[in-house]
Amino acid sequence: MKDKEVKVLKDQRDRRKRVQRIRTGIITVISVWMVLSIVLTALMCVKIVSLQKQIDILSGRYDDSGDVKNQVTGSSGEDKGVLIQTTDDKDNLAKEGDVHQVYLTFDDGPSEQTNEILDILDDYGVKATFFVNGRQDETSIAAYKRIVDEGHTIAMHSYSHKYSEIYESVDAFQKDFERIQNLIYDTTGVECTYYRFPGGSSNRVSNANMLDYINYLNGQGVTYFDWNVSSGDATSQAFTVDELVENVMKDVVKYKTSVVLLHDANNKTTTVQALPTMIESLQESGAIILPIDENTQVIQHTSIQK
Q1: Residues 114 and 258 in one domain
Q2: Are 166 and 39 members of one domain?
Q3: How far is CA 86 from the centre of its chain?
Q4: Contact at 8 Å (CB) between 147 and 105?
Q5: pLDDT > 70 in the chain, percent
Q6: ω into residue 198 within 30 of 0, thus cis?
Q7: Do 88 and 203 share a structural domain?
């Protein structure tokens, strides 16, 4: 009898242990499932936001810095006019039979990619425009010279490309402007007359009004250019080679003059890989690829309306 009671008690303990293990297993599975669900939901939200932003950039809602484009007005207390958006100027919309003029523009160089970009352009006999930043190392100085020597247009994209410094005030903007203009002149002998605002003329990061900076450039006889076609290579999540080409090709057909936004930076390897196909596709479509000069129709996100 005693042995039987012992066996019953042992069976009961074993059964309780099995139940406990099963309960623990169920709780663990449910907990892991809940954590994974939360993580996957968060990742999906980030992915959706990223994809939406890429769509917005391609549709023209965002500038190259990721800032939402906006309409801005003149400085308070000064009747200097109003800035209005003009990216999709109706006069520039292409009609059947129009020849498409395409301007490939590269921001943010010189970089480790510059020489390869120049090699590709040379292979195809194409001239482009480089909106450069200020760098004084030996490689960058050589890149400035090569851009000019090979017949491309060299243009200004600020010296530092640091928004907080450039747009701190008009005085700060002037100092940065003079620094990049002098560097290019001292290096290449070219007195630069073309400028692209970091973030574009419609950015929202400046402390002063963009109209003040535009008026300053006008006073220097300098023309600023934005873009009306974006490759999408400014986004944090890179497009593939085929997507970059498609982004450009689907928009250049809309305009008689297309200024294409591309980037010359160390991490823009996909842009370099896409360039040959992009050039071939443009040439096959009958487009003429040109560097920006005094005959180029000015493309600006904003303009002054009196």
Answers
A1: yes
A2: no
A3: 19
A4: no
A5: 80
A6: no
A7: yes
- 150-172 pLDDT per residue, tens: 999 999 999 999 999 999 999 99
Backbone φ, ψ for residue 261 (5° rounding): -85, 115
pLDDT bracket for residue 49 (50, 70, 90): low
Q: Which pLDDT does position 237 carry in this prediction?
A: 62
Give the separation between CA 53 and CA 187, rounded to whole angstroms: 38
Report CA dihedral (239, 195, 180, 202) to the nearest 10 degrees: -70
pLDDT digits (tens, 9 = 90+) for 8-45: 667 777 777 777 888 888 888 888 888 888 888 877 76
- CATH code of the domain covering residue 274: 3.20.20.370
Q: Is 45 within a domain? A: yes
Q: What value does the mean pLDDT take over residues 198-217? A: 87
The mean pLDDT of 45-60, rounded to a whole number, is 52
- Any idea what the Cα angle at residue 126 is, between residues 132 and 254, rounded to 5°? 85
Domain that holds residue 12: 1-59
Q: What is the mean pLDDT of residues 98-110?
A: 97
Residue 69 lies in a domain: no
**Mean residue pLDDT across the chain:** 84
Q: What is the pLDDT of residue 64?
A: 43
